[in-house]
Specification:
Mean pLDDT: 86
Largest sheet: 8 strands, antiparallel
Low-confidence stretches: 1-5
Number of strands: 12
Oligomer: single chain
Shape: globular
Helix content: 25-40%
Radius of gyration: 21 Å
Order of helices and strands: HEHHEEHHEHEEEEHEEEEHHHH
Strand content: 15-25%
């Protein structure tokens, strides 16, 4: 899919259109205090057709699975899910992650074999941890956006969607209000994404935040047909569901920006984790430097460290883990 020698190359006009769409919406929030939970400002979805030429280098995915298999317990704890016939299947998580491709087996053939030709979905969050190619791709495309939003206020994360699962297994749903997701559809098959504005969704579905029978209301949403090589931006607040009836691979880049209260929590968590690492509570309490330092100075210093750390990895939520 993506290699060091033949990277996934986004057409310059498509990239500029995408970045302009994101940053122009970002400027709206600068007028008022950023509070997307309580003050929704809807961003328009955008489909950019023929934005890149998909490269069929399946070694990137195979290598990613090989890297993940070395940290299977960590990966399956929260980053990696497998659905078989629409149902979450922890048993198959280990089967998929530990299986090896046969010589000359394509990615599609591999997944058909491992899934016993059933309908399946593989979702890998934080994929940038296990693929230097995906980490570089994510960073190179969206680092200007993170710089605009602020390294202390935003993160980017790469998720892989692989399968022939039909409708998204978790039904029509809404993501957190801080996140927009940019889908790079590699194919080889097409997919659909159907969106509902939040107020309209609740009028037709009631107060619940999920709909597990999408066929009942799908015709009332706005459906985008996404072909291989297309980019689709899914804004925050929209209820949505994908439909991938035939085998496809998609890269989804989540760009999250947080309000000040969330930033403060991130910095505090980072500060205390840094301070506690390698020290006992007694050592921290008795440390003369900590007693003499004010809380505000302590947080300020660690805020600077946090920004430097985030900037050094281009805003990635999870830094790439090089093999030892």
């Amino acid at each position: 899919m993506i290699t060091n020698t033949k990277p996934l190359k986004i057409k310059s006009e498509a990239k500029q259109k995408l970045i302009n769409h994101i940053t122009s919406h970002e400027k709206i929030y600068k007028i008022e205090e950023y509070d997307p939970e309580n003050e929704k400002i809807l961003m328009q979805p955008i489909l950019i057709e023929d934005a890149f030429k998909p490269i069929k280098d399946e070694e990137v995915i195979f290598n990613l699975f090989s890297r993940m298999s070395k940290e299977a317990d960590y990966a399956t704890s929260s980053f990696y899910r497998v659905y078989i016939d629409g149902k979450l299947s922890p048993k198959d998580e280990f089967n998929f992650i530990n299986s090896k491709p046969i010589t000359d087996e394509s990615l599609k053939q591999y997944f058909e074999r491992v899934s016993n030709k059933k309908k399946f979905a593989v979702v890998i969050n934080g994929a940038e941890q296990w693929s230097d190619d995906l980490a570089k791709f994510t960073k190179n495309i969206f680092e200007p956006v993170v710089e605009e939003m602020g390294y202390d206020a935003s993160t980017i994360e790469c998720t892989l969607f692989i399968g022939n699962y039909g409708y998204t297994p978790f039904g029509i749903h809404v993501d957190d209000p801080f996140t927009q997701v940019v889908h790079f559809h590699l194919g080889p098959s097409e997919k659909e994404m159907t969106l509902f504005e939040p107020d309209f969704f609740h009028r037709i579905n009631g107060p619940t935040k999920n709909c597990f029978e999408p066929e009942k209301i799908i015709s009332k949403g706005e459906t985008f047909n996404i072909s291989p090589g297309d980019i689709f931006l899914l804004p925050p607040h929209y209820y949505h569901i994908g439909n991938t009836p035939n085998f496809s691979v998609g890269i989804a880049i989540a760009i999250s920006k947080y309000p000040k209260k969330n930033i403060a929590k991130h910095i505090l968590d980072y500060s205390f984790n840094e301070e506690i690492e390698g020290s006992s509570i007694e050592e921290i309490i008795s440390n003369k430097k900590n007693i003499e330092s004010s809380i505000s100075k302590f947080i300020e210093d660690n805020h600077k460290k946090y920004v430097v750390m985030q900037k050094s990895r281009g805003g990635l939520r999870y830094s790439y883990k090089s093999e030892s």
